[in-house]
Amino acid sequence: MAKTALITGLTGQDGSYLAERLLELGYEVHGLVRRGSTITTHRVDHLLERVAIHYGDLSDGPSLRRIIETTRPTEVYNLAAQSHVGISFESPLQTCDSGALGTLRLLEAIRDVQDRTGQQIRFYQASSSEMYGKVVETPQSEATPFYPRSPYAVGKVFSYWMTVNYREAYGIHASNGILFNHESPRRGENFVTRKITRAVARIKLGLQTEVRLGNIDAKRDWGYAGDYVEAMHLMLQQPEADDYVVATGKTYAVRDFLEYAFGHVGLDYNDFVVIDPRFFRPTEVDLLLGDSSKARRKLNWQPKVDCQQLAIMMVEADLELAHREKTLLNAGKGFERYRAAA
Ligand code: NAP
Ligand code: GDD
Questions:
Q1: H helices of 205-294, where?
Q2: Can you give the pLDDT at residue 1?
Q3: How distant, in Å, are the alpha carbons of 81, 141, 142, 303, 337 from that of 292?
Q4: Cystine design at 9: which of 15, 119, 237, 317 (Cβ 3.0–4.6 Å)?
Q5: CA neighbor of 308 nearest in space, from 262, 272, 268, 275
């Protein structure tokens, strides 16, 4: 019998890769999508004939309950959140409404449907290495205490413990994936890796002259999103729910990423980076480095793409995008010249 998955955050980076993965595996896939003033499905447009879209929002408990009631998923992946750490300082309540209370609303909807129908619903929570924050040990594993340093991270700690509590209190198969940073050509453009690779491509093609960044000495354990969604799925296939760190086990400074990305097109990042205090955070996370030996041992999972390969993959994709941008710009200029001459 085909398994049925509900993904919240379908339109995000991870939602799009996870939907592809689950469709490949033969799942019936449903996605929670919130209505915006513009269409936000560009990352999953190629899947729309095969994925069922349900309008709703993590702030709207009744909509979550109704969607679970009607779709009867065997697995729920909770990926939706305001996921930008810097912006969480500007918008802490909205961040915690999705990243903290939203998880609780979803867990309550699952508990209710499971209680009334007897149907088992497995649950994945998108927990984050940001929860380690001001790290108390390195590398960070499932046993490392949390020390969150932003409203985003505090909200994620709440969701982490709610997931553990619903597992222990109600016997729900609920797991936390504590994922370290993962990127891809589909990464949002205001996260540092994508901001850099977009800039590299646009600078190379003469569409931009500089890139303004904050703390480029911060260190992160960067992996590829396509690899990480495999770990999410594997967690829900285990007989017992549990919590797992997912990471590459290598850490790099933003400076290293700059070197890989600019170096790939033969440029020196020092000539183009401007440090702008606007992008500093009130409290920073200086270093993240994950120990994912539990996931490797129990899930038989391992990452396939390293940081330099990731930077190159993202620059190549952004070069294609910048070429298209330039063609459109030139077409526009040609039209203006034609109008001026006519
Ligand atoms: P993303 O690209 O920012 O996607 C976030 C998704 O959440 C989008 O689909 C967004 O919808 C949706 N969303 C936001 N608020 C919502 C709300 N109130 N109701 C319903 N949907 C809402 O994030 P991502 O990189 O894919 O990350 C997926 C999850 O993993 C997030 O929870 C993130 O915090 C967590 N995480 C990410 C990383 C990482 O490195 N990427 C690491 C650890 C944990 P719109 O398209 O409408 O904005
Ligand atoms: N976004 C951004 N923009 N970050 C910058 C910039 C800039 O201009 N300049 C320097 N940085 C630094 C940030 O201060 C941070 O130390 C590092 O680059 C990475 O920032 P992000 O790419 O925004 O990611 P993040 O580590 O804060 O958060 C991401 O990873 C978490 C997992 O550890 C997000 O995907 C979170 O949702 C996720 O939980």
A1: 225-235, 254-264, 293-294
A2: 66
A3: 24, 7, 9, 10, 58
A4: 15
A5: 262
Q: What confidence tens digit (pLDDT) does each residue in 44-57 have?
A: 999 999 999 999 99
131's CB contacts (< 8 A; 6+ apart) are 146, 148, 153, 156, 157, 160, 178
Catalytic residues: 128, 130, 152
> If you measure from the C-alpha of residue 246 to the centroid of ligand 2, how many angstroms do you get, rounded to a whole number?
17
**Residue 206 C-alpha to ligand 1 middle, in angstroms?**
32
- Pocket of ligand 2 contains residue 161 by CB under 6 Å: no
CB proximity list for 180: less than 8 A, separation 6 or greater: 129, 220, 221, 222, 223, 245, 246, 247, 248, 288, 290
E strand intervals along the chain: 4-8, 28-33, 51-55, 75-78, 122-128, 174-179, 182-183, 211-213, 219-220, 223-224, 243-246, 252-253, 273-275
The CB of 36 under 6 Å from ligand 1? The reply is yes
> Between vectors from CA 127 to CA 33 and to CA 224, what angle results, nearest 5°?
80
Beta bridge partners of 32: 8, 54
How far apart, in whole angstroms, are the C-alpha atoms of residue 129 and residue 140?
A: 8
Cβ of 14 closer than 6 Å to ligand 1, yes or no, is yes
Q: Whole-angstrom Cα distance, residue 163 to residue 160?
A: 5
Residue 168 binned pLDDT confidence (cut-offs 50, 70, 90):
very high
- Which residue is listed with tokens 């993590």? 58
The three-state secondary structure class of 303 is: coil
Q: What is the pLDDT of residues 15-29, one digit of tens each?
A: 999 999 999 999 999
Question: For strand 28-33 and strand 211-213, is the pairing parallel, antiparallel, or unpaired?
Answer: unpaired
Residue nearest to atom 5 of ligand 1 (CA): 12
Pocket test for ligand 1, best of 8, 14, 55, 307 (most atoms within 8 A of CB): 14
